Amino acid sequence: MKKASALKLSLIALGVLATAGVTATTAIAAKTDDGITAKTMTDALHTVMAADRKIYTKLIISRLAKKEKVITASEHWKDEKALVLPAQMFRYASEEVAKKKPSFSYKLLSEWPINKQNAPKTKAEKEGLKFIAANPGKNYYTEEKLGKKKYFTAVYADTAVSPACVSCHNDHKDTPRSDFKLGEVMGGVVIRVPLK
Amino acid sequence: MAKKSNKQYWIIWGALSVLVAAYLTYGLLEKASATQPLMAEGRLMLLPGHTTHAHHQIELACESCHTEAFGGGELIQEACVSCHAEELELGDDSHPASKFDDPSNVERLEVLDAQQCITCHVEHKPDITNPMGVTLPQDFCAHCHSGEDEMPPDHKDFGFGGCTEAGCHNYHDNRALYEDFLVKHSTKPWLLDEPQLPKRAFAEAAMEMMMPYPMDQYPLEPLSAEQHDAPSSMSVDPKVHADWLASSHAKNGVNCSACHVNQDPETAGEMVGQWIEKPDHTGCQSCHDKEIKGFLAGKHGSPIAQGLAPMTPAKARLPMKSDVHDTALTCSTCHDSHKPDTRKAAVESCMSCHNDEHTLAYKASPHFKLWQDEIAGKAPAGSGVSCASCHMPRVDVETEEGSRMMVQHNQNDTLRPNEKMIRPVCMSCHGLGFSIDALADPALIKNNFNGKPAKHVDSIDMAVAKDLEARQKREEEKRKRAEQASEEVSAEAEGSTVAEEYEEDFDEYN
After folding, report:
1. Pairing label, strands B261-264, B270-275
2. Cα-flanking dihedrals φ and ψ of residue B139, to 5°?
3. Nearest-angstrom CA–CA distance, B427 and B430
4. Which of B256, B271, B331, B335 has the most Cβ atoms closer than 10 angstroms to its Cβ?
């Protein structure tokens, strides 16, 4: 009896895993209108985004504002005649890209956002952010339906690449979390590609 | 007999119907009807309802918004953006359409489509139009900003409709209202130690070539009476000649042809036309391009910009003086062409038309007293406050080469909502807190700021309290982290002691 129920449980577990695997494989294999897989596209996009983001943070913010102290960085960059913060740089670029109406969209979200508007909203965003925080080095891929459209949604970890990330977030008056450490996941880049 | 008479009536009725239909069709389809007094009435009859205060002076230019006969919402949106995009961007719009492009906003947009201007600003609906031309019920903020995630704890007792009413928030322009700005300026007194409005800098801007000024043709040097370049065939009115000679134009090398012959603004000074007896705004444009742009964007000049006859006080919705009802508003209405006097343009020109309580109370106000003292030379330049100081202020504008000071001739640039006036105007002389309170007091506005604000807007106090609380929390967290780190260091130190002991043991063993 015990053996039978153990077998039954194992089969159910196998079934669940297989279903999850098929879902994940389906999501990963999903293709864009142009024939390349959505995953290839989002991975490529993210490589560029992450590199630009890292370079701006290290070569501009950390070097000029933190190390050489020749200029400050501020979220009120216009009023303070300061450098645009890395997260703002990322967001402005995302909005500029959106104006061109491309076949993808991206944004930076966090479970601990300074601006509440950058908290996850959809189920995929919430699950994705939790996944990347719990599984360092791994990305999250899924499919989701928003309104009447279906999307391939990828979430990539956004980590603290420089001490400036940590100190600014930990010290900001609106931060919901103040114990970030260098190299930790602070949020995630969400990239969406519409599917047919 | 009766049948014959009926037939006549039918013919007359039919002919009249055709005439009325033709009259209305002409009004509907032909934009020129808007500029012909008799025909304009036909166009007016077809309006589905009067437009808001923002557009009423151009409401007969139907084609400005309805760019195609059967265009949909997209075309209307394009029309809104074509006039308003730049000012929204300059105002750091808090809710730009681009913010809602991300697909995750789809549910929000289904509730309130923040990407379409007409979601909140529907035209031709005077019965449901609220202040700022908003046609939604005043609790519209709550559609997206409600619940614990959206509303800060110190806002929990506030009503739904008060967000934009209380002097705390605007939907678009919050440059003077955002939290850190409130905190930064929280300690300023009601009147600054050195109240000073920005100074004029047109000549400097021209010198630095920060504008398409035709310097080669009109060098900044005084002209003599004989140097005028009006055609010799013309008989020049001695008064006009004398006025010009005494004007800042002649004193700065601006000759007759600079205004009376069209200049190409692109090539700065290249003449492209014949002598014009009565130049319109295009005659001023080659040197005062930014000023003209502002004039054409505001209520005074927008009819011209939309191809209509110039605005007249008769068409205004604010009370105007009856003796000037038909005065056409062009540059020279406020700036006498040959005797441009900016002081007159800054007060007397305004007061010659405007007849509302705020205007009529000006001459009894402290601002006017300061203006009189400046005019009389008893007080320094920039200490007097004219009508234009607030409604057509000197502002820094971006140019291709940098920025320059100019007079913003769009009178609405600092109005509606009036918090737009705080940074470029009020804060030159007053503290932020006083400015917010004063502009939130309708009675004080009516009497032209003759007194102090009756009510206090709590926004600065709330921002300061929140800032203090957050800082204390951060400090406490930092202290705890430091404590924790110090404990870890002690533990590591203890660990090394054990290791050292082990090392010693090892040495001893060997």
Report:
1. antiparallel
2. -95, 25
3. 5
4. B331
Indicate yes or no: CB of B101 within 8 angstroms of CB of A79: no
Instruction: Kindly list the residues from chain A whose CB atom is less than 8 angstroms away from the CB atom of residue B97.
Output: none
Contact in structure between B197 and B382 (CB atoms under 8 Å): yes
Nearest-Cα residue of chain B relative to residue A125:
B104
| CB spacing of B99 vs A95 below 8 angstroms | yes
- The answer to the question of residue A72 being in a domain is yes
Q: Give CA angle at B208 (B206, B211), nearest 5°.
A: 50
Could you tell me the residue range of the domain that residue A63 belongs to?
A: 31-195
- The residue with tokens 């601002």 is B367
Interface test mutation site (partner A, options B98, B101, B104, max chain A beta carbons within 10 A): B104
On chain B, the residues whose CB falls within 8 A of the CB of A110 are none
What is the C-alpha separation between B398 and B210, in angstroms, rounded? 10
Distance CA B339, CA B394 (A): 21
| Chain centroid to CA B4 | 65
- Per residue of chain A (196 residues), what is the pLDDT tens digit? 444 555 454 545 445 444 444 445 556 667 766 678 999 999 999 999 999 999 999 999 999 999 999 999 999 999 999 999 999 999 999 999 998 989 999 999 999 999 989 999 999 999 999 999 999 999 999 999 999 999 999 999 999 998 989 999 999 988 999 999 999 999 999 999 999 8
What's A187's domain CATH number?
A: 3.30.450
The Cα A171–Cα A179 span in angstroms is: 9
CA distance B474 to chain A (A): 6
Name the residue among B89, B68, B90, B87 with its Cα closest to residue B79: B68
Q: pLDDT tens for residues B290-326? A: 899 999 999 999 999 999 999 999 999 999 999 999 9
What's the domain count of chain A? 1
Residues of B with CB under 8 A from a CB of A: 92, 96, 98-99, 101-107, 110, 149-150, 178, 180-181, 466-467, 470-471, 474, 477-478, 481
Q: How many residues does chain B have?
A: 510
Count how many residues are written for chain A: 196
List of residues 6+ apart from B485 with CB closer than 8 A: none
Sequential DSSP letters for A84-142: PPHHHHHHHHHHHHHHT--S-EEEEE-SS-SSGGGS--SHHHHHHHHHHHHSTT--EEE
Rounded to an integer, what is the distance from CA B496 to the centroid of its chain?
69
B55-73 in b/e form (b: 16+ CB < 10 A) is bbbbbbbbebbeeeeeeee
pLDDT tens-digit map of B80-123: 999 999 999 999 999 999 889 999 999 999 999 999 999 999 99
- Strands A149-159 and A185-195: what pairing? antiparallel
Answer whether residue A19 is part of any domain.
Answer: no
A80 shares contact with chain B (CB less than 8 Å)? no
B272-B257-B408 Cα angle (round to 5): 90
Domain locations in chain B as residue ranges? 202-446
Q: Rounded distance, CA A187 to CA A75, Å?
A: 18
H or E stretch covering B160 = none
Give A175's contacts (C-beta < 8 A, 6+ positions apart): A112, A114, A169
Q: Please indicate if any CB of chain B lies within 8 Å of the CB of A69.
A: no
Best mutation target among B89, B93, B102 (most A Cβ atoms within 10 Å) is: B102
CA nearest to B465 within chain A: A173
